[in-house]
Amino acid sequence: MSRQETIQHAPDEGMLMIPGDPARDYVTAFAVFDDSVPALRAFVLSQLRKDRVVPAPPGAKFDLGIPVRLALVPRPDNDYDPRAVSVAAPPHHGGSVLDRHMGYLYSSALHVTSESIRRLTDETGTPVGCHGWIQLYALEDDGYFYEEEDGQDVDEGWEPDHDRPFSWAEQKEFGHGIGTLRIVLPARDTVRALVDDYLEEHQPTQAAGVTEEPSGTDSTPPSLVEQTLRRALSERLGIAMRTALHHRATDGTWGRETERDRARRRRDAEAAPLPRAWEAFREKPHGFRGLRATTRSVFHHTRILVLDETGVEVGQYHDPDGPLTLVDERTRAEALEALRAHGVDVEAPERLDALGDFPDATVVVRDGMWSIRLPKDGMPLSALPEAGWYDPDSGTLAVYAGPFIEPMTVLLRRHGVSPLLVTWGAPREDVERHNFRAAFAPSEISPFSSSSRVTEAVRRLIPERHRRWLNVKPAPAQSSDGFLPPLVDDATDNSYYRRALESLFGAPVDLEHRGPCRLCGRSAQSARPGLHYCHRCCGLALGGVLRDNGADGEWTEAIVYAVRRLAEIEFSGPPSLAQLDRISVPFTDASLVDEAMLCRFLVPRPGSTLLSTRPARPARTWTEWLQFADLLKDGMRSSMGIVTVATDGHLCRSLFERHVDDFLHHWGVAHEQEPHYPRHPELNTTGLRADWRLADGTFVEALGLMAREAYAAKVARKRELASLSGLRLVTVTAQDLHRLPEIFADWLPPATR
Questions:
Q1: Contact 91, 224 (CB under 8 A)
Q2: What are phi and psi for residue 561, nearest 5 degrees?
Q3: For residues 26 and 342, which has the higher predicted lDDT (pLDDT)?
């Protein structure tokens, strides 16, 4: 099959042949279903001649083959995708396009290719074809050969199907194992260019059998594709009706039940209990709290997300015109309000209370198609089984079971669309495989978000029962000369590495000296003398190895240990998340620094949370993790925050105040609580107090409610009063919690400054 650079007419086949070179072009199989196996068998068996066997082209994944020519027939009658293209035997093999149908091109090949093939067929009035191969294999590589040696009849009970269309006897008689029938097509844009060139060069002729409408009429004659399909479908319908009537008259049934009928009945039976389960689902609260919308951009890709208060992604608004897809349809009203508060001009598609019979299902938008998924306990969104799909371009909703028709229609109306056509059929083979995997998927999402490579010696800093949750993977082998692995990250060029080191250690990076990472041994740099940590280990200290998956287990015990240990060695109380961005143990104790880094590995961060669509519990906020670790036993929520007693016995009105108070206590900075400001006839007539007074008379204020106008005005008076009175005033905001060592450097012991 030499490559032709243009589309050529093949008179012997009666087709316009799209050129193809298997050494350079796309060689692929196509989807074969049981109902197309008879045509596939007839075509392949008619081509099996030993004199036609040739070596496979370079780069092919088979040894021998038989070159063939195949027809490509547009099939707008396909219920699942009107862009479908049938791979069929050439016209001279006889029968209609339905009789010659052997399978369908995969969906990935339809974009552009489908439209080009239909244009070429309609505008020339000639069938279109391409080149292909019948794959062959040596018999000794075929599993059936060994079964026959054991005395078994491998064809006993055999019936042709898409998995095994040819018997062992047929393959043995031919002398080769018969593999897949494959097609050869250029890239999609190349196919379009070839069609454009051919139609430009050849004036399209009137399609055969199409008569021009008389002048003055507005009707458009059907295309050649439509004419051919109508004729073939009419013939097949006539045959089916005559056969059905014959069966009805003979044995009282309309025909033989097929495997597809049985599969459809199974799907309907499995789906029958779900509508009642969905009634109970709609009556329960959804469990998400504090929904808010936010806009995120990564590498110029912008998404509008709906999050709950812990940062879990509840939904996404697909800009610019929707839809709003949600992991839990019960949250739609609150999610719409969150989007409006964020400035997104979105309206409820209809009265949601009138569309209350929605299913427990979620929509995944991918490549312009909407996949309707059924949530399962412990499974992420991408792994959920598919129950149907919706094509926005054609307005078609296809479901895989009869009981889904009404609920899925309501679901789409809640997304702002009303399907024009609702079909009920079988899923594609790839969807069936996906759904089969979903049925046996693990019951929960892994609590790991990353892996580490810390050494065995370093792991001993963590109790043995918690070490496995560091998720240590084998380190790559070092070179035989014993030198350290090559430097991968250089803080001079890698700003992320430099910022991570400087954030953790509060000092500039030493760009001149390198050493082995104290945790994993890779070549690394440092921001404090002798404390070398690589980029990966710094990233894990800031981001964590574990994530909240909504299901407690042994891994949560490791989190509790890490949080308690950090409170003990660094903070003398419950730390804030911001404080975890800075190592606060003495840098002279390298082993303690290592332990503080490892404990941070075990602390989940809100941004890493990954829940299944139906988690066992909601994601925990950082405050809830502190409560879970029993670090807030005496905490009581008030309008100002959580009232709790600091480690030194001081009563704090918020966790923010507690963090500052515990820091001062941990580092031995003497501090008196709530001292009075000096009296002033205008600025202080009500007895203003500061949060703390240090030993040298410095006043300290923890500014936690600056968004409140009255609070901000009081702070302004305190600043002016301190200035007039000659008082030194230090102010701290929640954003400063990771900078407490710098803010209070003048009062810390010299070794820790």
A1: no
A2: -60, -45
A3: 342
